[in-house]
Design brief:
The complex is a heterodimer. In chain A, about 35% of the residues lie in helices and about 20% in strands. Chain A is an alpha+beta fold. Chain B has one domain (about 10-170). Chain B is globular, with a radius of gyration of 18 Å. Chain B is built from four helices and six strands. The chains are: A alpha+beta, B alpha+beta.
Chain lengths: ~210, ~180
């Protein structure tokens, strides 16, 4: 669920690198450069890229600009083709049957391992063009005055993809604000030394 | 992502100890919190709490829920060495009320609910509602950060042992 929903889940990050002042006027161009390219008509399993916050189908930011006050908002779209294993199994079996028949006509009956692999790849490629990718949208909020970025997912796989795309687009490294990293961002040097020597507390009453 | 990273075990220690401490604090003095500007706010942990203990294959978790329950079973778990690994927090500052489920190991915020927005304000600027929502979300993370800062200050001071002694009393309280 996105930031505009009544309930949303997200992960917090801080930007580790200094943000060059020259980046701000280029934000929109960079988003467009790495915008979502639809994979409906090409046989890719997965496609991802940025889209407009208000409209996940808008990759030209015609609907609204990403800048809103001190925030920059946009979305990461991830389109994925999911072909059920049963469908793959059936069509691979059909292809093998076909191949066997063809070979039988030539007086052979053994399908080499490599050929089986090749047939499976051909089947997958054919099936990909018949299954439409399922689109997913994940909001991003960049609080420029706080150097913080929020991403509307808590799944590790999505977080990894987001970090990769953000780095590629803006050439800025993000760090997830986990308990340790959040503590590091809050504490002075003296406390940090104590933090690094932290031993777990035994809360349960000692028996 | 399953590779261990620098600070991973510290993440787990800090996250669980923070939520465990927060449960104790919110149970014994729910209104005694202040934000970074000194304004008071209240915290309660209610409805749902997950405690976890043990290592590796012996790890066990207990999830306790109940809308008005004191979550006694979970508190007994603390007495047996478990710690809070996930909790549903309710934060109240003046007329604003927030609810969020916080996971100890990574501080991901799940199902954050902010106060309802007044749709009547949206006539002039299409972004007004959105900006209001972002503002409310930042208020909530600000309160969480204030709680965490207070915990860290105490956790890294000599006063922590005294706090732990008091927490032990609370864990084994039977009423």
């Amino acid at each position: 669920m996105g930031f505009a929903n009544s309930s949303c889940s997200f992960t917090r990050f801080r930007i580790l690198d200094p943000v060059p002042a020259t980046l701000w006027p280029q934000i929109l161009d960079k988003l467009k450069q790495f915008a979502m390219r639809d994979i409906d008509d090409i046989p890719e399993m997965q496609g991802q890229g940025w889209t407009c916050f208000e409209d996940m189908l808008d990759t030209d930011w015609v609907t609204a600009p990403p800048q809103k006050g001190a925030y920059i908002v946009f979305s990461l779209r991830l389109d994925m083709r999911r072909i059920p294993a049963g469908v793959v199994k059936k069509h691979v079996a059909l292809a093998l049957k076909e191949e066997k028949k063809r070979m039988g006509e030539q007086g052979k009956n053994y399908i080499a391992r490599e050929r089986k692999k090749e047939l499976k790849e051909q089947v997958l490629l054919r099936l990909r063009s018949r299954f439409l990718p399922v689109p997913g949208e994940f909001n991003v909020l960049w609080a420029t005055d706080k150097n913080e970025v929020w991403f509307a997912s808590t799944q590790n796989k999505m977080i990894d993809l987001f970090l990769e795309e953000f780095l590629k687009t803006f050439e800025l490294h993000l760090e997830q604000l986990t308990p340790y990293n959040l503590a590091v961002s809050m504490l002075d040097e003296e406390s940090l030394i104590r933090l690094d020597k932290l031993e777990p507390t035994q809360f349960a009453p000692l028996s | 992502m399953n590779m261990p990273y620098l600070g991973e075990s510290t993440d787990s220690i800090l996250g669980k100890e923070f939520l465990t401490w927060l449960w104790y604090q919110s149970d014994t003095a729910p209104g005694a919190f202040t934000d970074k500007d000194g304004a008071p706010f209240a915290v309660s942990m209610e409805q749902r709490i997950v405690v976890e203990g043990g290592e590796g294959d012996a790890r066990e978790t207990a999830s306790v829920s109940g809308s008005l329950s004191p979550l006694r079973e979970a508190r007994f778990g603390l007495g047996n060495g478990k710690q809070v690994s996930r909790a549903l927090l309710r934060l109240e500052k003046e007329e604003l009320a927030f609810q969020v489920s916080l996971k100890a190991e990574d501080f991901c915020l799940n199902s954050l609910k902010t106060p309802k927005l007044d749709k009547g304000d949206s006539d002039d600027d299409p972004d007004a509602l959105l900006l209001e929502k972002f503002y409310l979300m930042e208020v909530c993370t600000g309160l969480l950060d204030a709680l965490y800062a207070r915990f860290l200050k105490l956790r890294l001071s000599s006063g922590w042992q005294k706090e732990v002694d008091d927490m032990r009393q609370w864990m084994t309280r039977t009423e």
